[in-house]
Amino acid sequence: MIIERVEFENFGPYYGKQVVELGHGEQPLIVIHGENMSGKTSFLNAVRWGLYGYAKDRSGAQMSLRKLVNEDAYLEGQRRVAVRLHIRTDDGESVVLRRQCQARVGVPEAVEDSDYDHVLSVEVGGNVLPQSQFDDIVNTILPEGISRFFLFDGELLNEYEELVREGGAVAARRVKQSIELILGVPAATRGRDDVHTLREEADRRYRREARKDAAASEAADMLESYVAEQEGRLRDRERLGVQHEQTEGELRALETELKRYDALRADAGLLEGLRNAQQELGERRSQLLADRRNHVAKLWRDALAPRLRHELERLERDRSGIEVAITDLSYAEHRLADLTAALSEATCKTCGQPMQEEAMARIRADLAETARRTESLRVTADVNRMQELSGTIKHLRDIAPAGVEEAIAQIERELGSVKLQEYKNEQKANLLVDRLKNVDPEAIVEYERKRNALLRHVAAMENDLASLDRRIAEGEANIADLRRKLREKDLPALRTLKSEIEILEQLERLFDRAIQLLIEELRAEVERQATDIFHRLTTDTTYSGLRINDMYGLTILDRDNREVAVRSAGAEQVVALSLIGALNRLAVKKGPVIMDTPFGRLDTKHRANILRFVPTLAEQVVLLVHGGELNRERDLAEVADRIDEEYVIEHPTSSRSILAPLKEVVA
Amino acid sequence: MTDEISDVVTVGVSEATSASLDELQELGHIGERSDGYRLGIAVALSFGRVPRPQARKGRTTMLSVSGLDPDGAIKAAIREIYPEAADWPYRAAEDLAEQGVEIIRDHMEGEDLSFAELMSQLRSANAVEGSVATSAEAMLHEGIPGD
User: Fold this and answer.
1) ipTM
2) A57 occurs within a structural domain
């Protein structure tokens, strides 16, 4: 079967009505891209809820109807959620399933599931069937018991392995039953059960007839009472089995709830850690501010420094000018005296001859110029001003910088880091506080108390069941013994009936043996197919294959056929996918595979291997992927020709996701 | 003009500057109000702000001049930078503090204040040789806007 179209209304983050065409099976792959929180899991849940009436959150717990109804729609008064699935069966028949839940009129806040009315409708080949047939139709096309192998969260792919290993005998048995259901074993077991019923019926008739015979009546009476006792034990066994299963169900639900609280308890621990870190950062910030305040008290001296440096440079220039002027003045005064003497003597100092008039004129001109210059220099060469400037320069130099600027800069850099860290911590803490705001610590204690009580109850029931099973086995042996003795009496009137019983007994044993062989063959076939797929998916060439156990748990074998004890989360996912692939190959009922976040735990090579493999997994494979696990251009190119439809989840707000078709083809 | 101005023995603070100093102290940027006051004077001086001797109206007493300037460094700096204010250095200091605290206050971003950033701007303002001094001198000689 394939799902041709999904229509949903107000489902989770999808506001209003949305229609998603999933192709007509021309190509197997449908790829839906969406970032975290955009609505990928909600798409998977819409299909699951449409078929089976429940949706699961990431912890595997069932979600309430209130959580399924789109928040915006609910606030606007459209308190309704609906899903319609258009399915084409393997016989080409069209099946339309619709499930709707609407809040009851008059309920102010529709919080409980009981606050909603359920409406189901089913159409087969265009004919509307009574809604009572909804579950039968679903059971025919994709029974819930096998849905875990078709609709699954990639992150939880190893769930079945955990169930087999850690979920206890009942959980492991349930997985085994699901697997045998998908492989078609129940068709054989139903045959055996029918023969068993016929044999018991013949046995009853034989006992009834035997009691009429004087030679056998005593033994027949005794056998009758044994059988009656045994039937009582079997009824007790069935009743206790049902109770046990119910209690285990309650226990599982409680443990799921406690798992949720485990995450919340971890959140509370993180929050506490963040608060301690914030306190330490706050103390560090206070210390840094105190240190900075101490430096800031002296910073005014550093703040003055640039301006004072300017002033000092100016003053030093002025003083230097005066110093030069004083030197120049001294020279000019000497020159003036020399020129005046030369003029008054009018004789050349070198040759002792009287000076010519031309030379005298030159000296006079020089004297006039030197006198003018001397006068000018006397104004500039102000010794008092120079002393004054020296005093000022000394004063300004005394105002020494405190040298705290660099220390302040360093403190401020650290303050910046501290504040950034405080901001980041605050953001994280706000998220955690938000997650923890509705948690009642008393509820956790109460859940733990209930779990412990249930654990004791389950253990007591398992003891009772074991004891009952022993008594049933003893009873069965006694009955068989007595039945044998009774038949040895060779009552002529009962010879035909005796033959009938013997034939039925042989037939029952034959069925048992056939079923056993069938299961063994199927298990071996699952192991072969899973190993074949595993080799295609794994990148590790040192593995020789997989080994399957009685409960369909798979173990990786190394090249010496020794079991590999430890395996990574990625390996778990590859093994689980190998099993799913094998079951899909061997399934008597084929369905579409919808995988949410299938590549989350995988490295590049495993992702490429799995991407090449998934188109062969089923007739229709819907992949719900995010950008972090799959790069559209790079990763999808190789399987581009196997893609039928491609969508992207646009996510403008948390309650307005839109599934939009991606038109362009991946190159 | 300067001959008629006498100096002060205590420095004052306007209501607005007092509020800014309180805020700086409450936010932990300064230990004492006088630290901010002193830094204000230095910042105004380095940014080339010119003291306005008349602008004392409405100011309340802040602290004594000996408390403000125990080693006379502020007085020396003002006297040398503004020779016109040589006879009233603390009156000048008071007005420079008003202007400088306002600069510091304006430098705040929300409740944050980076003194390193302030110092960097201050150095930039003095990087062009003589720019601050020249503009300040020009203002002093040409008259003070707003007086």
Assistant:
1) 0.89
2) no
Q: What is the pLDDT of residues B19-75, one digit of tens each?
A: 999 999 999 999 999 999 999 999 999 999 999 877 667 788 899 999 999 988 999
Burial A471-481 (b: 16+ CB within 10 A, else e): ebeebeebbee
Report the SS3 class of residue A73. helix
A426/chain B closest Cα distance in angstroms: 18
Q: Which domain holds residue A405?
A: 297-436
Q: Is residue A394 domain-resident?
A: yes
Q: Do B133 and A396 touch (CB under 8 A)?
A: no
By the 8 A CB rule, do A522 and A185 touch?
A: yes
Q: Which ranges of A543-660 would DSSP assign to H, the alpha helix?
A: 569-586, 604-613, 632-636
Pick from A619, A661, A538, A651: nearest CA to A12 = A651
Q: Does A407 touch chain B (CB under 8 A)?
A: no
The C-alpha atoms of residue A483 and residue A139 are separated, in whole angstroms, by: 41
Residue A365's Cβ-count burial label (10 Å; 0-12, 13-18, 19+) is: exposed
Of A293, A304, A313, the CB nearest to B45: A304
* Nearest alpha carbon to residue A104 among A90, A114, A93, A92: A114
Cβ contacts of residue A67 below 8 Å, gap of 6+? A12, A57
Domain chopping of chain B, boundaries: 2-140
Alpha-carbon distance of A172 to A174, in angstroms, equals: 5
**Structure tokens given for B33:** 């109000």
Determine, yes or no, domain membership for A45.
no
Cβ contact, residue pair A302, B125, below 8 Å: no
Contact A304 B130 (CB under 8 A): no
In a domain, A164, yes or no: no
Q: What is the DSSP letter of A111?
A: -
A113-166: per-residue pLDDT in tens?
A: 889 999 999 999 999 999 899 999 998 888 887 787 788 777 666 555 665 554
A547: left (phi over 0), alpha (psi -120 to 50) or beta: beta
Among the listed residues A403, A392, A391, the one whose alpha carbon sits nearest the alpha carbon of residue A304? A403
Q: Which of B118, B119, B124 has the most A C-beta neighbours within 10 Å, making it the best mutation to test the interface with A?
A: B119
- pTM over cut 0.80: no
Residues in chain B: 147
Q: How far apart (Å, rounded) are the C-alpha atoms in residues A318 and A389?
A: 8
Q: How many independent structural domains does chain A possess?
A: 1
